[in-house]
């Protein structure tokens, strides 16, 4: 059974043009043993971030938090209603380091089925359906875990149509990911989003990846330890000049409590409060509008299939 082309939000499927200004990669809830004490668990803090984002003109947020890392899917519909911000949430699996051995062992042999169920039936008892699949590569390589999760993601894509979003470790491994997903596993490039390209500012690799037809997300600005804000205009201009302006996405990727605006960090509003005017000064208002408004809808709107 096939439904109309739409973006799957926590409140139901909507046309791409209804997303509005979109933070294409962020987190309202997230918890990992790799970030002890920095978990995103507070509903009131999530509400405050969304409210602040909306005050800057934000219309949608895509939460990339995958299976087992505290998505709190049951809280998302109410947060969307209360703030007026559309929310897309994810299924998928992160790098192995974020999970205990028992959790991973319990998913062996059924990972693709879990992804498909969360995309079509809902996440646990909440009934909230995921709108994309998030997986992750390693540093300049794809280990056995990455190949396992990406193979399951490809199976789930072929069953449902869902877009696959990929965490690139420090922005590396983009071409290896495309060779696996789009080459070996047959996922159309336009159904792949590569995340964190800003963390490895290799403009040649960026152009090669974009030429495949995939989407490139520049996410996680405001971090001094990443090659982000000051190089981002040049990277985006290179890609736009090469004809890839319709493949670019922007996101905030807030992953720690300290990074939230309510705790004194840049948080979700920073993307629109500081990054948007900075990019507009260099790239022009029209291109930045397309990156924030048009491109996310095309990246996430799919012809949903139900197996």
Automatic annotation (TrEMBL):
The keyword Transmembrane does not apply. It comes from the Bacteria. It holds the Pfam family PTE. Keywords: Hydrolase, Metal-binding. PROSITE patterns: PHOSPHOTRIESTERASE_2 (PS51347). The keyword Calcium does not apply. The modification N6-carboxylysine is found at residue 134. SUPFAM superfamilies: Metallo-dependent hydrolases. Belongs to the metallo-dependent hydrolases superfamily. Phosphotriesterase family. This is Phosphotriesterase. It comes from Streptomyces doebereineriae. The lineage of its organism: Bacteria, Bacillati, Actinomycetota, Actinomycetes, Kitasatosporales.
């Amino acid at each position: 059974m096939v439904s109309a082309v739409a973006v799957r939000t926590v409140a139901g499927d909507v046309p791409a043009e209804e997303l509005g200004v979109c933070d294409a990669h962020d987190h309202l809830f997230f918890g990992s043993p790799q970030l002890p004490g920095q978990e995103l668990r507070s509903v009131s803090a999530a509400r405050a971030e969304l409210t602040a984002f909306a005050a800057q003109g934000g219309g949608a947020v895509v939460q990339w938090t995958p299976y087992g890392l505290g998505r709190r899917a049951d809280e998302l519909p109410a947060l969307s209603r209360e703030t007026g911000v559309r929310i897309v949430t994810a299924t998928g699996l992160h790098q192995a380091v974020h999970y205990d051995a028992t959790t991973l062992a319990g998913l062996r042999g059924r990972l693709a089925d879990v992804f498909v169920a969360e995309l079509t039936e809902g996440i646990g008892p909440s009934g909230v359906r995921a709108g994309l699949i998030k997986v992750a590569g390693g540093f300049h390589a794809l280990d056995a875990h990455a190949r396992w999760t990406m193979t399951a993601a490809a199976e789930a894509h072929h069953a449902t149509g869902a877009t696959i979003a990929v965490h690139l470790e420090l922005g590396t491994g983009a071409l290896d990911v495309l060779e696996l997903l789009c080459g070996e596993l047959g996922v159309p490039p336009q159904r792949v989003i590569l995340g964190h390209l800003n963390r490895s500012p290799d403009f040649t690799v960026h152009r090669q990846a974009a030429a495949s037809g995939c989407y490139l997300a520049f996410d996680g600005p405001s971090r001094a330890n990443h090659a982000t804000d000051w190089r981002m205009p040049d990277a985006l201009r290179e890609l736009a000049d090469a004809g890839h302006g319709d493949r670019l996405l922007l996101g905030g990727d807030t992953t720690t409590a300290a990074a939230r605006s309510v705790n004194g960090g840049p948080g979700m509003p920073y993307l629109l409060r500081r990054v948007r005017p900075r990019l507009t000064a260099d790239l022009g208002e029209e291109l930045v509008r397309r990156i924030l408004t048009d491109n996310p809808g095309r990246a996430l709107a799919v012809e949903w299939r139900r197996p």
